[in-house]
Amino acid sequence: MASNITYEHSDDPNDYLPLRDVVFNSIRKAILMGELKPGERLMEIALAERMGVSRTPIREAMRKLELEGLVVMIPRKGAQVAHLTESDLNDVLEVRIALEKLAIEKACFRMTDAEYIELLSASEDFERLIPTGSLEELAQADEDFHEAIYRAAGNKRLLQVLHNLREQIYRYRIEYLKEERSRELLVKEHHEMTNAIKSRDVAKAQELSFAHLENQRKAILHSIRQK
Amino acid sequence: MASNITYEHSDDPNDYLPLRDVVFNSIRKAILMGELKPGERLMEIALAERMGVSRTPIREAMRKLELEGLVVMIPRKGAQVAHLTESDLNDVLEVRIALEKLAIEKACFRMTDAEYIELLSASEDFERLIPTGSLEELAQADEDFHEAIYRAAGNKRLLQVLHNLREQIYRYRIEYLKEERSRELLVKEHHEMTNAIKSRDVAKAQELSFAHLENQRKAILHSIRQK
DNA sequence: CAAGTGCAAAATGCTGACCGTTTTATTTAT
DNA sequence: ATAAATAAAACGGTCAGCATTTTGCACTTG
């Protein structure tokens, strides 16, 4: 069993990915995409069989998912997909608002022309996807926009923390994007933020970012309460 | 071998700790205490033998240390204790300053009397330890003081992120505490912050916190550069 | 019929042996 | 001394197995 798994020996040895990371990415994606639902049990043996690997890489991937906050471990009982309570959502977004504020401030000071071009094109990509794009594509484009700001801030740790915070609410943000008027609003907000950052108007950009995230908070809260 | 390891069946089943977490805590502490130095290789077999366990819990602990940022994994080469570059330190402290600012704001709004008592007593404990306390005790007391603020902020995610950020620089903060005048300054700053928070003076408390962390940044930078 | 009891099946946590591949260390040759 | 060749060790993962716990389920009982 699982003997069909062979290691990739690519020319560039740098793109070698341990199996545990393949598993990690795979389960992570499944949780973010909603295929694995909150509360669902994640059993080592079942997962191992489904992915054609042994328990070892599954267990190691689980440790990382645990620290990422996507999975909750109960000793001797196993892992389950983490729930996001209303209070959790508020906590996450509160932190994210504070850090996005920092990111914008830093970006306004340090952003290069090349980085601005990237931000602008991310904004345009998002707009272009509105009519035809799938939910996943839209979510990805929205992420790319924010990532462009984070990267321009030039702080690796900030990038990493924001990445993790966004991951927490990814599952629920999809709900937000389902509504037509949310999307239109997002386009407008992206535009305004892009302009504010270009003109290095820190206060304006921060204010817009705050409103942007507050809108998201309300929408997600609403969709959580409905369930 | 290692068959002398038996599971603890305590009356309270809640204090059961998986071996992987024992290992995790143990290695984590060794890194923070400086017993394991930056760049040092962490070899599974050696660690396993030294701790009297098999490779499995070692490997799983390593995954968590990796995500915590205390250990750097290089595929197929193994794990080593993470280095903290000057740029890393700046990044970490920049984020921490932003989040401590948030914590103080929230604490000023929500702090209960009981929480204030805790903060005050943490501040007093620190002061009391100045003459007699060891470096570890002082570091712990300083942590407790900040934790008291974080907890009063009433945001679990904020607490968690700040905890991790502090861990990153713990190793180097010890250097800071070695100097006599740093300690005196810390006592003063703790006092002033406690008072500002008590009188719910957000701006004042935030300003003090900023200065507090900036002092730390300069001192740590200095000690890093000396090496 | 709901609720507890008891038991069998399954899951977790870990050990130990093993194997292919890669990396590191050591020896040997230049 | 430096470089190439070779041996030793480490990583990454599989597999089988074992003690302990948890869970699912049939079965009884009030």
Question: How would you describe what is shown here?
Answer:
2 copies of one chain form a homodimer. The first copy, chain A, is mainly alpha-helical. The first copy, chain A, folds into 2 domains: 13-81, Orthogonal Bundle (Arc Repressor Mutant, subunit A), CATH 1.10.10; 86-226, GntR ligand-binding domain-like (Four Helix Bundle (Hemerythrin (Met), subunit A)). Chain A has 9 helices and 3 strands, in the order H-E-H-H-E-E-H-H-H-H-H-H. In chain A, strands 1-3-2 form a 3-stranded antiparallel β-sheet. In chain A, strand 2 (71-74) and strand 3 (78-81) form a beta hairpin. The longest helix of chain A is centred in the middle third of the chain and has 25 residues, at 86-110. Chain A is globular. The model of chain A is unreliable at 1-13 (pLDDT under 50). Chain A binds chain B through residues 16-18, 20, 56, 59-61, 63-64, 66-68, 75-76, 87-88, 91-92, 94-95, 98-99, 101-102, 106, 155-158, 161, 165, 168, and chain B through 16-18, 20, 56, 59-61, 63-64, 66-68, 75-76, 87-88, 91-92, 94-95, 98-99, 101-102, 106, 155-158, 161, 165, 168.
Order of helices and strands of chain A: HEHHEEHHHHHH
Report the uncertain regions of chain A.
1-13
At CATH level 3, the topology of the largest domain in chain A is Four Helix Bundle (Hemerythrin (Met), subunit A)
Beta content of chain A? under 5%
Number of strands of chain A: 3
- Biggest sheet, spatial arrangement of strands of chain A: 1-3-2
